[in-house]
Amino acid sequence: MGESAVSSSAIADAAELLTQKADMLLERPADRMMAAPAPGPRAWYAHRSTAAGSVKERLLVRIAIAHQAHFDLFEDIARARAAGAGWAEIGAATSLTAHQASKRWDTTPAASRCRHEIGQLAIW
User: Fold this and answer.
1) Average pLDDT estimate for 98-103
2) Which residue has the higher pLDDT, 29 or 95?
């Protein structure tokens, strides 16, 4: 298929749609693994707000499933990190060490990972 056959905006729209559908489909096995009720009723929403259905735990389950399916994990990992998941937890979900997981998915600029203040001078 030549690039001129389909516009780049149509490809971007299709990619966005695919991403949304994959995201919704990933929720189903995550719900099954977390023993959640069927989506929709009040019990499902209540389950999602409990400790077993916490955002962090749910994201770690999604990451484990997506990793096995060879999905791009950057977005879920960023969400899991924002929800408080550590690199050790993400590493465990992906069968990697904390160091391997952070090396692979940490997109934080090196300057912001530095523990020293910008104006601080090293004494050694």
Assistant:
1) 96
2) 95
The CA R_g of the chain, rounded to the nearest whole Å, is 19
Q: Which residue has the tokens 């912001």?
A: 112
**Per the structure block, which two tokens stand in for 83?**
């929800």
pLDDT band for 43, please (50, 70, 90 cuts): low
What is the DSSP secondary-structure string of 61-122?
Answer: HHHHHHHHTT---HHHHHHHHHTT--HHHHHHHTTS-HHHHHHHH--S-HHHH--S-TTPPP
Q: 122: number of CA atoms within 13 Å, CB side?
A: 4
State the total domains in the chain.
1
Domain assignment present for 77: yes
Mean pLDDT of the chain: 78
For residue 114, being part of any structural domain is answered with: no
Boundaries of domain holding 51: 9-104
Residue 117 maps to a domain: no
